[in-house]
């Protein structure tokens, strides 16, 4: 073989070897680049997953706080409405009781003024009927309470008894009014 062929063969072999060696290096570099890209993608996916999880947790916590606040507002509103309704019912019971005690007081005065006349018996029956009406209204006041008002109402009813003195009624009525005002005052 001549030197030119041999040189050509060596050059061709060197070119093939260099190409193979370059290809192997290129393949190894490509594998490293692919692995690095894969790892970077995994890190990005993990970071995105964590950010999404944190956003979901924050949204959940915010929703819980909002729901708790709304429940608190609803409870307060219902409590205020219940107290307002209770005050309205108590006010009606107290007003009815006062009206009936006023009617009984008038009936007592009419009866006392008719003693010794032909009107005495009918006036006594009217007074007794009015006192029964006061008793019915007192039962409602006792149901609605509170105890301070109930005690004052019982004292007011007692001040209307036929054996009571005329001065008892005014002070008993003032005591009932004071107790009723306290019970009806907003908390």
> Helix segment count?
4
Q: Which value, in Å, is the CA radius of gyration? A: 50 Å
Strand content: under 5%
- Pick out the low-confidence regions: none
Structural class category: mainly alpha
Total beta strands = 0
Share of helix among residues? over 70%
| Element string (H = helix, E = strand) | HHHH
Mean pLDDT, rounded to whole units?
Answer: 91
For the largest beta-sheet, the strand count, sense and barrel status come to: none
Shape: rod-shaped
Spatial gap, N to C terminus: 120 Å
Concise overview:
By secondary structure, the protein is mostly helical.
Explain the layout of strands and helices:
Blueprint: H1 3-114, H2 120-144, H3 147-159, H4 166-184
Q: How does this structure look, described?
A:
With 187 residues, this protein is mainly α. Helix content is 90%, strand content 0%. It is built from four helices and no strands. The protein has helices spanning 3-114, 120-144, 147-159, 166-184. Helix 1 packs antiparallel against helix 2 (120-144), helix 2 runs antiparallel to helix 3 (147-159) and helix 3 (147-159) packs antiparallel against helix 4 (166-184). 15% of the residues are buried.
């Amino acid at each position: 073989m001549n030197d030119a062929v041999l040189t050509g063969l060596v050059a061709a072999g060197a070119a093939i070897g260099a190409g193979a060696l370059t290809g192997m290096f290129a393949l190894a570099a490509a594998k490293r680049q692919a692995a690095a890209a894969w790892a970077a993608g995994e890190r990005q996916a993990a970071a995105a997953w964590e950010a999404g999880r944190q956003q979901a947790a924050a949204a959940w916590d915010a929703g819980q706080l909002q729901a708790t606040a709304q429940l608190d507002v609803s409870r307060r509103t219902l409590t205020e409405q219940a107290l307002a309704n209770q005050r309205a019912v108590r006010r009606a019971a107290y007003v009815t009781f006062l009206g009936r005690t006023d009617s009984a007081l008038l009936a007592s005065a009419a009866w006392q003024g008719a003693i010794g006349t032909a009107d005495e018996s009918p006036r006594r029956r009217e007074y007794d009927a009015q006192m029964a009406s006061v008793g019915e209204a007192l039962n409602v006041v006792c149901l609605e309470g509170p105890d301070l008002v109930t005690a004052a109402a019982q004292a007011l009813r007692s001040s209307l008894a036929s054996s009571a003195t005329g001065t008892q009624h005014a002070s008993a009525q003032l005591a009932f009014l004071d107790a009723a005002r306290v019970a009806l005052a907003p908390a």
